[in-house]
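Note to self: the last two entries modelled the partners one at a time, which told us nothing about the interface. This time every component goes in together.
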Amino acid sequence: MSRATLLTAERLARLSLPVTTTFLASLFSVISLPMSGYVSVAPGLTLMAIYCWSVWRPLSLPFGAVFLIGMLEDLLRGLPLGLTPLLLLIMQAVVRSQHRHIHGRTFDIFWIGFVLTAALHAILQWIAAVALSGGYVGPEPGLFQLMFSVAVFPILAWLLLRTGRAFRVSI
Amino acid sequence: MIPKRGKAVRRLVSVRRWFQRFSFLLLLLLALGSIVVSRSDAPWINGFRAGFTDATAPLIETLAVPVRAVSSWFSSFEDIESLRHENARLRDENRRLQMGIVQAQRYLAENRRLRELVGAPPPREGKHIGARVMASGGGAYTRSFILAAGSDHKVRRGLAVLGPNGLVGRIVNVGEFTSRVLLITDLNSRLPVMLADTGERAILSGRNGRLAELKYLPTRHSVKAGARVVTSGHGGVMPPGLPVGKVVTVEKGLVLVRPYANLNRIVFVRVLDYQPSGLIGTGGGEKPKKPAGAPEKGRNKAER
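The predicted structure of the combined assembly is written out below.
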């Protein structure tokens, strides 16, 4: 393989890294683990990836890609088609609008930003669940999922950061 | 030609700019529209969903290998710690089960003799299809699984799915190699059940939690905590008598049931291919043998 081809492949990998990692996070989130209660509290890995890339490189993850990844998740999870992309797009727009307040600050601020984003996502998800079920639905599963996501976030953020640096993406 | 091409390119660029500017709003509207369309539960959406799950199944299976390896490594520590307790519990359970088997065999023989005596056909057992849980569908507000078995393995929509201890749910969507199971604890799950001891009928409704609720019980019911809940067989898809769960709470009209199957830790399930008697042209299932001395006419009437 020539050097030029290698360089092009590396450049392509670098450009598509945010979309690829978000897509993988989405697939990982549907893998079932034989852990007690895991299904109901499985962390929102897709939201974490979207948050990270929207803070680090807002334009590298287009709305269209988030829409498609959300649709994929709905297809796999058996949810009403369009629900996940709707919530994820709203969250992406919110994070993009707050990007300058979070980017380049300490990890604590980065994490607090995610806590607020995940909390807003949990509220919207619960409202959608109530609206679509046509009756009252307890918010407990969403709250547990939020807590688990907040706890898992530093690990995924670190993994994404390492991957980004390995591909020489400026973060 | 060149000016024309330039015009087309300029138009394309302007369309692209317009899309970039309004892409967010357009995609939001598209997502909302998709929700409305998918709520119609059209067959083509289910077909598309099943096809897509089939297509992504190999990728999910590949990604699951390292994740499950790490998970089983962690759970091996848990196993070592609880091994002694588990061993003692299993020995005790084994002793009780050995006694139970002798008793069950006696009842079975007695039941067969009585059935022959009154000319009743033997209950249909159905065929079992073993399947592995491939992925956890659903999310915080939905409960479903994806199984690594589809129409290729004779899995059909509506079939009952059993765990090691009891009913898990039913098949709601079938692809070629995969299928989706709606768990009995899902908010949209409604299952005709009855109380094993009293025969009182009810509908088991999911609540998205660990417990499910018994609804539409008779006004003056005699349900008590600890009562066994089994399928009633109404609707014809599931055989009557499948173990579902145990009543854990009875208060102020609220009756809650804990499923026998541990829905959070299931790895393998059995899909029960059951064909109820009396349905014409549904195919599959095993034909019951005609009991000795059963009057043909009378049996047909009963089946109708």
